[in-house]
Amino acid sequence: MTVSLWQDRSAEATHRFDFVVVGAGISGASAAYWLASRGERVALLDAGGVAAGASGKSAGMLLLGTADPYSRVVDLYGRERAREVWAFTAECRALLAREVLGGGELDRELRLVRRGTVSASVSAHEQLELARSGALLAEDGFPHETLDAAAMREAFGSDVFLSGLRDPSAMTVDPARLTRRVVALAQARGAELFEHHELFGLEADADGAQLLTSRARFEAEMVLLCANAYSPLLHPHFEDKVYPARGQMLATEPLAERVVPWGVYCDFGYEYFWQLDSGEVVAGGWRQHAQDAEKGYREETTSAIQDGVWDFMQRAVPALRGKRVTHRWAGVMGFSGDGLPFVGELPGKPRVKYLAGHTGHGFGFGLLAAKKLVELALDGAPIGWLGAGRLARK
Ligand SMILES: Cc1cc2nc3c(=O)[nH]c(=O)nc-3n(C[C@H](O)[C@H](O)[C@H](O)COP(=O)(O)OP(=O)(O)OC[C@H]3O[C@@H](n4cnc5c(N)ncnc54)[C@H](O)[C@@H]3O)c2cc1C
Fold this sequence. Notes:
The protein is α/β, with parallel strands linked by helices and 394 residues long. 32% of the residues lie in helices and 26% in strands.
């Protein structure tokens, strides 16, 4: 989107805050929550509404680690980095449980399912990687349950899966409701939400920052950009750091019986699905079969991907055959060059900091990454591997 001269109503109001957070997805909502918890006066603004971006289109799987299995991350970045990244997501999940999800009283409202997830193999190559990952994860203190082909057949009623690595503590959730809950917690601590305020101008110097949005002007001590995939549209600094890629999903009518016992992440994360307690099965993926077409910002579904996902689902879970698909949607993810999110500041503008590059795992990283961003902004705290400097060094 862009803001024309005719749509620019920024002169109608000026708001002053300590912090302005741009983007009301899980990252920006979390940043606003942490800032408000520290007593800062914070405005959270979004071009659309809360969870208008990927956070409202996500599959909502609260997974450990990255899209790549542990074994591959160990090969690519070394054992220590892999352990750090997995520990980060484990800490993020614990934080989410403590600060946001509660002890069960909100499960229904958040459509939260606490039955765990399974990384499943659909090829001999992936089976090998999962076996290696299982051994390495156990050694590094992230124990998983190993499932063989027979156990997977019993669970899903098909021969599609050769093995599984089950994380019993993983959860799946309605990602839009989760994001709205984080925003509500931030608001309860004093944060103010400005929906339908699209940012189109940003100036910052040693004294502060000024932001022009479609409906108001903002002045702030500091700005936190949390626009993930949309970051390159906000500033050219992100053009060689964040790559937009579309993800497509579908949902079925509610099924009376449970046909998907756990959330599933398979084919190296390219396919994923789970079943809500109300019976619907949500599934997405197939992007690897049309990589070029799935690049960019167009939030459209295509029959090539939708048919691919649905064919796969009917093979993987035969009980879905003949069931009706009720919803189809697309969302835009922000990929980074190395598959990990990063935190930094705009060159020469220490008053504008950012978090981006979640690479399809923003619900695994977001709450804690936003905490690190806030600690960097308020305390100058070190951010370790999360620092954007690691991308420049590559
Ligand atoms: C189909 C799909 C499935 C996924 N499955 C999973 C999963 O199972 N688990 C997982 O962890 N992650 C998953 N993801 C990824 C996850 O959804 C994202 O990593 C996460 O939502 C990113 O959150 P965010 O807040 O950083 O960005 P977003 O949610 O994209 O938020 C960015 C916000 O910035 C706003 N914005 C942009 N430009 C402007 C502007 N100029 N002015 C004001 N506001 C602006 C947008 O409106 C948007 O609301 C999936 C994503 C998709 C698309």
